[in-house]
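Q: Convert this sequence to structure tokens.
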Amino acid sequence: MNDWSEQAIAITDNTLPNYDRLDDDWPRSNPQGYAEWFKTCMESQFEVQLKSLAESLKTNIEDVPVYRVKTPLQRAIQILKRHRDIMFIEDQENKPISIIITTLAAHAYNNEADIFDALLNIVQRMPNYIETRNGISWVSNPVNPLENFADKWQEYPKREQNFRFWLQQVCSDLNIALKSENIKAIGEALKPHLGEKAVNKALEQFPQQISNKSRSLIQFNVPHRQSPMWPIIPIGWINITAQAFQNGFPCQIHNDSEPLPKHCSLRFEATTNILQPYKVYWQVVNTGYEARVANSLRGEFYSGDIDNNGILIKGGRVRKESTLYTGMHWVECFIIKDGLCVARSGEFVVNIQ
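A:
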């Protein structure tokens, strides 16, 4: 176990979400140890982001300023604190303090590469790291377990009430926003909670290719869906087109369109701006009672170089399936280059009646 207590030097750290301003919520003891602990909570994603940034800047990793790297954990904490600031703009005295948000979020983070996945999982897991010691709520300083960051909650019960209510509210606000029809609608739903300027700036980072996420990410968060096995560093796009064949006659189908009948053949084709060489993987996910009973929920990844019958093929950008089970199902395409996922299509939803 790391002995963080040996690093009790009164300095700040530029990898923390609040490094760039004076903040009453900096750790009150052993700030350097806390900073080192925080780094370990996002270590794998930090290295991935650092390498990617170095490549984009065409420089050595050693020459990249650490403050330029922003992991999903750091961005998630910034979003959570922004939501907190707006929600408690009329009650600054009793708003959740940043050190508690940062500590619980870091505990809850599981090095998710996607900011949406990170946010949702962090908010859901954060309450698990609030302890109860002798009837007192306790958020332990990870580098000084005897220090309780929530020590004021007993004296000011409203602060604990506000924190727990805020957690419920931010989870509800995220879920409602993510059920919107597209990225633009998600942004509009979040503006009251995160501010128009912050949301508009964030929306500029999203290419139109991911607007096909027309359903809630919650609906896609099914337990049998495997997580990507590669670090995700999106530098390109993938677009999927699809055809359905019924009685030998083809027709073009669109993402999340009207339900198809059973026993149609499907053909998906991916186009991308990523230059070869690369590898293509497809993920196929079924949902619903019929697929469950047939033990065919799937959710795993398939190499694009092997067809449904196990025969070696070239290219990998075509996937053939069929409509068998009533419900909402989807395919997603991933482009892998040098061990990294450099592009993913997003879910192409097929509804079956």
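The longest helix spans residues 157-178.
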